[in-house]
Amino acid sequence: MTFLKVEDLDEIRNRFGEKIAYYFAFTQNYFAFLIFPAAFGFASWVILGSFSPIYALVNGLWCVSLVEYWKRQELDLSVRWGVKGVAGIQKKRRDFKHEKEIRDPVTGETLQIFPATKRLSRQLLQAPFALLAALALGTLIATCFGIEIFLSELDEVFLPTGLLTTLVPTLTTMLTTVATRLNDYENWETTESYEAALTQKIFVLNFITSYLPIFLTAFVYVPFGSIVVPYLDVFNLTARPFAQTEKQLQTPD
Fold it and tell me: Which of 234, 17, 60, 210 is nearest to 146 (CA)?
C-alpha cells in the first residue's frame, strides 16, 4: 500500500485545487484508520464473542479519535495552503432570485433579500419527500421479497438479487434528481449554502437506500416472518381464489 505524502497532496492541490486535495487527504486518513477497527473487530469476534460491550466502547473511542485527528490535520493543511478561514467567504449563486432589495444602513450597500420564512416553508417539503423515498424503496424491497418467496419454490433465488442490484441505483438516481430540483426550489443565496443543503438531502437518500433494507430485514422480516410471509407469497395469494383444495396450491417437487 502506498500512502500519499504531504508533497503529493501539494501537487494535487496545485493541479486540481484545495477541495480535491482535501478529499484525497481525508480518504487516506479514513482508510488508514480503518485498519485498527478491522483488526480489532476480527480479534473481538474470535476472543470476546458476539455483542461485546468492550468492542462497542473501543469502536466509539475510535470514531472520536478519527474526527479529532482529522480536525488537526485539516487545520495544518489549511495553514500550509493559505486557505485558513476562507470558508467564511461565500459566493452568491447566479440562479438566486431575490424578492426585495434593502440598503445596508452601515455600508450603504444594496442587499438582495429572500424571506427566510418562505425558504423554511419550502424546506418543510423535505419531510414528505423523505417519507415518499422510504415508501418507494420499501415497496421495491417488499416486492423483491415476494418474488424471492415465490421463486424459492422453484429453486430460482437470483432474480430478486438482480432486480435489487438493477433497480435500487435507478431509483436512487431518480430520487437524487428530485432532491436537486427541491434544492433549487429552496432558492439558496450562496453556493456554499446550496451545496450544504444538497449534501444533506443526498445523505438522507443514501441513508435510506443503505439501511432501510437492513431495518426491514432485522425488525420486520426476521421477527415477524411467520406473519408477513403469507402476505408476500404471490403464488398462493393469486392461485387461492381458483383452487378447490389445499393440495392444488402445493408446488410440484
Answer: 234
